[in-house]
Amino acid sequence: MPILISLATFISTFFGGLFALRFKDKLHLILGFSAGAVIAVAFFDLLPEAIHLAGSAHTTTAITSVVALGFTIYLILDRLALIHAHDDEENLGVSKRGILGASSLVVHSFLDGVAIGLAFQVSNAVGGIVAVAVLVHDFSDGINTVNFVLKNKGERKDALIWLTFDALAPVLGVISTLFFSLPQSLLGLMLALFSGFFLYIGASDLLPESHHDHPTIWTTVVTLLGMGVLYVAIHIAN
Hints:
The chain is mostly helical. The chain has one domain (2-237). The chain has helices at residues 2-22, 27-54, 60-83, 85-89, 96-122, 124-150, 156-176, 184-211, 216-237. Helix 6 packs antiparallel against helix 7 (156-176).
């Protein structure tokens, strides 16, 4: 069962990325939606799950501190990428910023797969709930991965390569759990760290870019729509 669900995550992620490629002329609207979706995933999915998994071993303050640490780490990495941005202007291919964002999503997707696999180690019921929660935002993960690459000097082929990595990541995550078990408290802290990553990506990268040279009213609407869709989907899954 976990392997079949991991294949479903591959399909969901890949079709999300193809959707972004097909409608890249409306990228500012997709970026606005993606910003809302990424922020919603951090607030309504990753952070609650982190508190649930790590709450018995760590205080809420400690968990939210890890979120802040993730935000700060990504801030520093992003600023370092910007310092060397002139190097990217002289070369073809995806910029450091695009690689950083896409890589973060790939690792997050791998952890999604790990979460599914570990949940099924608890019971089929728990595994099913976690799997549904992952599936509902994998489509957005695919969109976000393509967006990071396209808006950071990547071509269509670059986007497809990173999309394939992101789609394969949860499959590999599920398979990896066949060989190890991870304490829930540690997995929770890892999810908290990525919650900080995603808050930075959504608020400081995707959202400002979606407003660039475009009317803010429509990008604001689709951002709120992205948050709303993910909020409803995650709570239905839960």
